[in-house]
What does this fold into?
Amino acid sequence: MHRLVAIEARGTRFTDALRAAWDAGDAVLPVDPRLPAGAASALTVAMRVDEPVEADVALVVATSGTTGAPKGVQLTHEQVVASAEATSSFLDVDPSRHRWLACLPLAHVGGLSVVTRAWHTGTPLDVHDGFDAAAVDAAARAGCTHVSLVGTALARIDAAAWTRIVLGGSAPPPDRPANSVATYGMTETGSGVVYDGVPLPGVELAVERGEILVRGPMVATRYRDGGSVVDADGWLHTGDLGRLDGGVLTVHGRRGDMIITGGENVHPDPVEQRLREHPAVADVAVVGRPDPEWGQRVVAVLELAPEAAAPSLAELRDWVRDALPAWAAPKEVEVVEALPRTSLGKVRRAAVR
It folds into this structure.
């Protein structure tokens, strides 16, 4: 009987246990070691650990839960292989010359997919127990060439030491290095499926009524609770808003994040990208809050750059209006020490709101 086993996703102990579970025909639920004991226990109950799974299931990966309770995404061995082949082909990975470093949380698909693509292609792999900037730089000096990171880590490492840096988790910084590639994807797609706006080999994109749809051999079809991930035609309805121009995808953000102010639609992502270009802004989240006059007002919540003074509302409004429509300019600014984030660096918008 094939069953689902839970394994604490910590460094090489996890990867060794994952191989052993697969050799035994079992599927694996990676459990984030940073979860409190009660939360980890609740996760294993919700995902029905030790109960049967279909024979082709390799992984059950919990979604990051930025908008609600995590769901368990079932990824088959075939889907894991399809993701590994597509990403490695796009990045032109050569196992005889390249070496991957896995340093993102292995309980999330962004970190776990580094391991599975290296295994499938026979590319050498180093696995760290979490991100440490000094250890990442040391890995590059020791021969690692490819790494997956979140955007906030770039400023803490020697980016020039890497052949290719794959960025996921949240919006990349506007001044990212030329050797980096920004990815779009989610747990349901098995890892990033769009690189710098271009779909990976075998990936199809569509936009219907503003929503991004994805179809491809790496896209999951079922959740652990039996619910369908895709529609009858195999399309994943992402809940993200975006547009396609000549086959190149621009992502605006989650449908529920869109702000309607004075009858105008404001997508937070372009506003955030513009504000990140301001020298005083280290990072920002743009949200909508109730407003008696406008319905919603655009609010910018800032993390300041080191030693920077907080810019005025008027200055930031002018900064945004130089590049975007006037209604996209924030009507309120707040400064915080740190934005609330998931373990992969995604801003938790619900908490910001």
